[in-house]
């Protein structure tokens, strides 16, 4: 059973930084695609960043240059470093994982999800 547990959320002022962590119970090196998503109140869940099995990354335009996704396979942990935070980054952040050769094109195709961690950015 694969379990994902996020941590690191909190409240910060605009311009500040946070680092989210996601502990993954099972990590098949070379076979896993991991990602961060977020959902703001009243809005649909959206993709933030993905990290494929080869280390390739992809970011939403709204966070490009400010956020960085990374992993520590030895610790089975996924990270999201968030810098220069803005009030519009306020949301519940979720990590997700899918095992296979390619990263899913749709968030609905990610099988494993964490419970979420809240990020609140004040102006």
Features:
single chain; 123 residues; mainly beta; four-stranded antiparallel beta sheet
Concise structural overview:
The protein has 123 residues and is an all-beta fold. Helix content is 0%, strand content 50%.
Explained architecture:
With 123 residues, the protein is mainly β. It has strands at 4-7, 10-13, 18-24, 32-39, 46-51, 57-59, 67-72, 77-82, 91-99, 112-113, 117-122. It is globular.
- Helical proportion? under 10%
Which oligomeric state applies?
A: single chain
Number of E strands: 11
For the record, give the distance between the C-alpha atoms at the N and C termini, rounded to a whole number. Answer: 41 Å
Shape: globular
Instruction: Tell me about the largest β-sheet.
Output: 7 strands, mixed
Residue fraction in strands: over 45%
Average residue pLDDT: 94
The helix count comes to 0
Provide the succession of SSEs: EEEEEEEEEEE
Low-confidence stretches: none
Radius of gyration: 13 Å
Indicate the structural class.
Answer: mainly beta
């Amino acid at each position: 059973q694969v379990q994902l547990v996020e941590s690191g959320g909190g409240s910060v002022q605009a311009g500040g930084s946070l680092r989210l962590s996601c502990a993954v119970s099972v990590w098949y090196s070379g076979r896993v695609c991991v990602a961060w998503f977020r959902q703001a109140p009243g809005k649909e869940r959206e993709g933030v960043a993905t990290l494929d099995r080869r280390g390739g990354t992809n970011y939403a335009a709204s966070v490009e240059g400010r956020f960085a996704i990374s992993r520590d396979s030895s610790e089975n942990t996924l990270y999201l470093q968030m810098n220069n935070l803005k009030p519009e980054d306020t949301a519940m952040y979720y990590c997700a994982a899918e095992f296979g050769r390619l990263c899913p094109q749709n968030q609905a195709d990610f099988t494993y999800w964490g419970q979420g961690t809240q990020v609140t950015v004040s102006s």
